Amino acid sequence: MINRGYYEGFGGAYIPEILVATFDELVDAFQKAKNDPHFWQEYTSLMSSFSCRPTPVTFAENLTRMFKGPRIYIKREDLNHTGAHKANNVMGQGLLVKRMGKKRVIAETGAGQHGVATATMAARFGFECTIYMGEVDLERQRPNVFWMERLGARVVPVLDGTRILKDAINEAFRDWVTHMDTTHYVLGTACGPHPFPEMVSYFQSIIGKEARKQIMDLDGRLPSRVYACVGGGSNALGIFSGFMDDPVALVGVEAGGKGLDSGEHASRLCSNDARIGVAQGYKTYFLQNSDGQMKKTHSIAAGLDYVGVSPILSHLKEAGRVRFEAASDEEVLNALSLTMQKEGLIPALESAHAFVQAFKEAPTLSSEDSILINQSGRGDKDIFTIADAFTDPKWREFIKKKAEGYHA
Ligand SMILES: *Cc1c(COP(=O)(O)O)cnc(C)c1O
To answer: Ligand 1 atom 5: the closest Cα is on which residue?
Structure first.
């Protein structure tokens, strides 16, 4: 088992002995599903009736005119059910859980987006669902917690440690060890022990498969560059996979936060603050000091605020196949405003990182080129976070009045 799931030294499965049989079962179910042509068919047909697939590619005509460079195309993962590409992963894992005959799913969530996606999947498949959340995150993300509970999930506050995502991960693993016969752990991104990086990327590859065909139909040729934001790495691997064997530059954009020199960012692959290490069951670049202590991370986008990164991306960085850049919080707000006002699109703060880098490079490309940006999610569902990020005074006043109204 330990020999599987390595990407030139990154990845692996560093798991407690007691979970080995459960992981073997999962690897086996995934391999069988992957080799069964009906499974992908079942998956795409489920996604077309439940989550608007295939999502369109939109030509950004006004931005293209403005930058006077390449034609700019946008893959619309924001149109998925629950507003982001996360639906691709959770629904795929749901089908696997059904195949394994399990009846209960658990997940951990920081920003709450993966929790909401998992709760919708559990409701659709009729699974029991428990979501672990650090108490601090739970308080910050009330709107997402509200939806998880309405969807029928049990949301458990984690009071250990610093009461954030990593503590919730530990608690979810404890639950899994106790209930592995009945329970599947739905990991939210292309991280963690094998087979999760491979499995999550496999489900997300639906983005790249669709996008390659769509841009060939629309533009008659391949794009010069493809841009995606990188949190754990799942939406990036999803769209990149469609162009991996083509002469197309792949650009991953991490959270530059308050700047790469500020220590307040979440850039693992293009800052000097990350080291290769083993944590949370896998080997990759983690934001940690020389003693292996994990560092605090910061991003304006909750979905990019994570210490680790997909081992597959660490490998693709070292292999020189994917280039990594960082976008600062301030650049993200500017790119988001521009995209909203020029195109009427509302990318999530996470996705806006990819737009930043695309906009930086567009003026250097020619009108012979085209580029493709993955809009991983929509921003309008995150009105609390985005209104805060823009420090909108009228919004603040509205919230105050609303709160007073409830107490009247
Ligand atoms: C969760 C999330 C991300 C980050 O996750 P990846 O695994 O890196 O894709 C990016 N964009 C949106 C909209 C998200 O919700």
So the answer is: 231
Q: What is the mean pLDDT of the chain?
A: 95
pTM over 0.85: yes
Catalytic residue among 108, 210, 325, 343: 108
| pLDDT tens sequence across 309-323 | 999 999 999 999 999
Q: What is the pLDDT of residue 3?
A: 56
- C-alpha of 329 from chain center: 18
Residue 49 known to be catalytic: no
Q: Are strands 128-134 and 154-158 parallel, antiparallel or unpaired?
A: parallel
405 alpha carbon – ligand 1 mean position (Å): 35
Domains of the chain: residue spans and CATH: 7-48+85-197 (3.40.50.1100), 53-83+205-389 (3.40.50.1100)
195-224 residue pLDDT tens? 999 999 999 999 999 999 999 999 999 999
CB-based contact 119:154 (threshold 8 Å): no
How many angstroms separate the CA atoms of 59 and 343, rounded?
10
**Contact between 77 and 235 (Cβ < 8 Å):** yes
Query: Does residue 86 have an active-site annotation?
Result: yes
Contacts of 321 (CB under 8 A, 6+ apart): 244, 250
For the segment 280-286, the average pLDDT, to the nearest whole number, is 96
